[in-house]
Amino acid sequence: MSKNLLIVESPSKAKTLKKYLGADFDILASFGHVRDLVPKQGAVDPDHDFAMDYQLIERNARHVDEIVKAAQSADQILLATDPDREGEAIAWHISEILKSRPKLKEKPLKRVAFYEITESAVKHAIEHPRDISMPLVNAQQARRALDYLVGFNLSPLLWRKVRPGLSAGRVQSPALRLIAEREIEIQNFKSQEFWTIHLDSHKESESFTARLFQYRGSKLKQFDIGDEQRQAEILRDFSSVRTARVDSIERKRKLRYPSPPFITSTLQQEAVRKLGMTTDRAMRIAQQLYEGIDVGGATVGLITYMRTDSLSLAKESVQEIREYVRDHFAQDYLPAKPNQYKSKVKNAQEAHEAIRPTSIFRTPSSLSSYLNPEQLKLYEMIWKRAVSSQMNPAQFDTVSLDISAAHDDTLFRATGQTLVFPGFIAVYKEGVDDEDEAEEGRLPQFEVGESIPVDRVFGEQHFTQPPPRYTEASLVKSLEEFGIGRPSTYASIISTLLDREYVQLDRKRFIPTDVGYVVNRFLTEHFNAYLNYDFTANLEDQLDSVSAGDREWIPLLHDFWGGFHSLVDEKKNISRKDVTQELLDEACPKCGKPLCTRLGRRGRFIGCSAYPECDYTRNLGTEEDTSAPEQRLLGVDEASGADVMLLRGPYGYYLQVGEALEGKKPKRVSWPKEIPVENASMEVASQLLSLPRDLGKHPETGKKVVANIGRFGPYVNHDGVFKSIPKEESVFSIGLERAVALLAEPRIDKNLVRELGRHPADEKPIGIYKGRYGSYIKHGRNNAKIPSGMDEDSVTLEAAIEALSQKEEKKPVKARKSSKAAEAGTEKKTKKSTRKKSEA
């Protein structure tokens, strides 16, 4: 019987494959990349056609030795690393190492690739091996060479001109630029006031609001009602109006189509929006689902490969999804023929399929006892998106109602929308970055010419808003739109910016740090030609052409290096002062010379450009923000008729109903930090003033269940038990049933990375946890380091038990004290305690 050696990247993948392949297969893991460039100048040599000097990665040397040893007794070597550029490069590096050994030079060596880890897919791949794809390898080498050439030439410039220890990257720098430019936009934004006029009416028990869009024959533009005075003038026209007339009604049927199944970028965006994960965490969990989960004693890959930009699905999987929809929904939920999706991504090629479950009949509920909470949430999202992609569109009836009041040529408009057929929404609804896409409500039934009552006409103040800061989801979307990097690199781009402290997250939105701001300014001013969006995107397209075999990689590197190297030499003589200082249009109050921003050890500050002759300094942003209003009228409280004001106090913004009169304190509610003050409106204020919401009585205790907003965000409370309301749900709409379900959920340690299983000795759970100094294994009160050569994603239950056992064996045994020694110790402690008390 022939002996086969199958090499994969991760031990968890190896464990899954062992279940599918017989005893004639040895399966070993490389634990990721096995070689990398020597970390010193000259590792890529432009003078010799960019020859690359590789060395073994030290932490994986032991695994390479095991592979070499096993290869000597194997009849055939199969390289089954991941099916993308990086996986192809790892396979090539392993083959180069094996071919360098005389005894292994002639061994049969083939590449196998599978996009899902199921028994049929794996065996089919092994039956159809191929050669290593050198175009893919060359594309990966070209990327690595470019990253090295940019990093090793720009980083020393940053050390000399800005601060030691900084670095620049070919792809991370344009990503930093996106964040920094957005922040500059926000800082330069000038808010502009405008007002809207609204009419409240009702029919029977149904009330609604219409907005003035045409006044005395003229269509209103955004800033036509620019201040409170103009608003008051218009309102006077309606002071005696008690009825209005329905001028026209327009009804339309609107379709909303399902989104395609996930690709890498859309999976990352939705995991951030809907699940509150980071892009990096989402990819790690997806990797676990791909590589295999123990389901009832059988290890099986649950999803297809997660690094892909293809929207297509295998014909068999489409048939399976359609069969599921046919069996579980009415006939009108299933399209007459399969939905087809075309990729908008150039050169979409890194995998053959979109991300989908390996079996649609493996429903989330059937896996709930086998997956940890994070795995289950991500799998459920992937499963729902795949199913919904093969369903009919949702159907809405939209109604637009024009109402004339005061004058025939003065019109208000009310719009309503009703869901008449759920279609794909019955399974999946896409997340959004900003909660400004609420569904419109229903409108009462009217006829043209019908008279309606005018309950009130009122004005509402607004201020234009700056563009929002990037979330991880919106940043990934922009990276994709600008062609910066590729989906498989987005998570690492974001991690790099955070790890190097060029950006920080504030309420899950990116802000450039002072160092990040200065680094971006230096790079955009002096290396814009090589780090602008168009150049970066064009270079990515050229690298994709190398992957496809349409372009050679060495000429591409020559084209880049000539101009870039000359520019680096030219910029070596820039003064540090020009890089770290930026002149302001403001005079120094001490000497009259221009002020400038400067970079110090603790960040940027404002100082005099005449330093050291003048030592004037002040903190950046210490001047009071005069652009934000001290108070704003939002509207009128329906219950009391009092004005609802947004006020700014010493501790932030708050709402106040009515005036503060002697002996009577008005109702006040803090404005939540989660809601930008620019979004303040009467609608939001009314919702906040309705808090806390009494949801009803708990079915088990009969005690009150309440929804409210606290210092840590929205929550539900029952009998002293608090549970946070998930980001995708609203404190204003959550019901009793959902609140009871949230309260019943077990508390999840926020530091828990994943559960491994239970210890056979005491049945207590064993898990991987995040700690101050990295991840570790925890079992009850016992902790242990993650074994060498493993990471938080590859540790198995068996390895964790062994690590805990070894830690326990190393603990020193405490010697028991003799009774006399114990007594002496007690006496000594007592005397010491007495002395301390007397001294006190």
Task: Describe the protein in words.
This protein is an alpha+beta fold. Among the domains are: 129 residues, Rossmann fold; 123 residues, Topoisomerase I, domain 2 (Orthogonal Bundle); 110 residues, Topoisomerase I, domain 3 (Distorted Sandwich); 129 residues, Topoisomerase I, domain 4; 39 residues, no CATH class. It is built from 23 helices and 36 strands. The strands form ten sheets. Strands 9, 10, 11, 12, 15, 16, 17 and 18 form an eight-stranded antiparallel beta sheet that branches. The protein has a four-stranded parallel beta sheet with strand order 2-1-7-8, sandwiched between helices. Helix 8 crosses helix 12 and helix 9 packs across helix 12.
Average pLDDT, all residues: 86
| Sheet/helix structural class | alpha+beta
Query: Can you name the CATH architecture of one domain?
Result: 3-Layer(aba) Sandwich
Q: What composes the largest sheet?
A: 8 strands, antiparallel
CATH topology of one domain: Rossmann fold
> How much helicity do the residues have?
25-40%
Number of helices: 23
Amino-to-carboxy terminus distance: 85 Å
